Amino acid sequence: MTSFCCLVVGGLVSLLSGGASLAGNVSSMADLQKHVHEVASRVTAATVALVSDGGETGSGVIVSPRGLILTAAHVVGGDEIMRVVFADGRVVKGRVLGANFTRDAAMVQIMDGGNYPHVELGESDGLHVGDFVVALGHSKGFDPERRAPIRMGRLCTDGKQRFLISECTLIGGDSGGPLFDLSGKLVGIHSSIGPMLKINNHVPVSVFRRDWDKLLSGRHWGQLGLHPMADPESPVLGFAMMDVLGVDGVVVEDVVVNSPADTAGIQPGDVITHMDSRSLRSVRDMLRELGRHRPGETVPLVVVRKGTAYKADLTFGRRGDLMSGLKYQEQTQG
């Protein structure tokens, strides 16, 4: 508890507004600390660590008594099963449901029956710049020696942009963890670290509300391989993809200019049915195949365009290089 108090009080001197004297802010500081403590005490049990088959770790938060978890899409990747680690160290299995990779939103369902601690969804669209928020997550993975660290900060944007941006300090392992308002309601999911540790992006809970049924049904769609929290040395394709009912293969939704897919001649509307002689029936299949390769490798694809199948060779790019190119394009166009 001592470390928690130091975290809150130490940050409040600079966070509280307007240059008023410290003595004049004591009441506000005490009230805010009380709010943060109450939020943390209610939501910590529902904040879980998620571990992939490959050992990569992220976070998530349970939002229903039956064990439905919201997390970030880049945390689940192409996995079908995740290990879910509770604050007390208990481990259960979770089945990956749907994922919107463009908005970095995903769902996981705990497979064991039970009545699980959970949090209430808030309204991210009602947030304002300057509102205080509370962030939890299993920084650097689950640690039995401590509970999920608590971070507090203010919002730099409201809930109507593509991402919420906050001052809450986040590091690796926090991805997929929850962001709460001071009433303890979930308003966002941690997505990516910004150019500084204290400028971070969160998926607004409104994104989950909008895509709820698709995520719950297990659909996967959106841009893959561009997430700034992902390994810069991993291979990248450079196109958005989606599953379409009745289509046996991965449908290309959009292609990044000057990406490996663009160079290989892939176009929006193409259906990719095979990679390196392996059949692809879904986005999840594509993700698994992507994990078998490295940047610089060339693989043959079978592509169906307007009913005609043809072969195309694609050379995987490096994620970090494509991210750098996209940032350069934004700067020159902005």
UniProtKB/TrEMBL annotation:
GO terms for biological process: proteolysis. The keyword Transmembrane helix does not apply. Residues 1-22 form the signal peptide. Coiled coil: none annotated. Residues 223-283 form the PDZ domain. InterPro entries: Chloro_Bact_Ser_Proteases, PDZ, PDZ_sf, Peptidase_S1_PA, Peptidase_S1C. It comes from the Bacteria. Keywords: Hydrolase, Protease, Signal. The keyword Transcription does not apply. GO terms for molecular function: serine-type endopeptidase activity. PANTHER family: PEPTIDASE S12, PROTEASE DO-LIKE 8, CHLOROPLASTIC. This is Peptidase S1 and S6 chymotrypsin/Hap. It comes from Akkermansia muciniphila (strain ATCC BAA-835 / DSM 22959 / JCM 33894 / BCRC 81048 / CCUG 64013 / CIP 107961 / Muc).
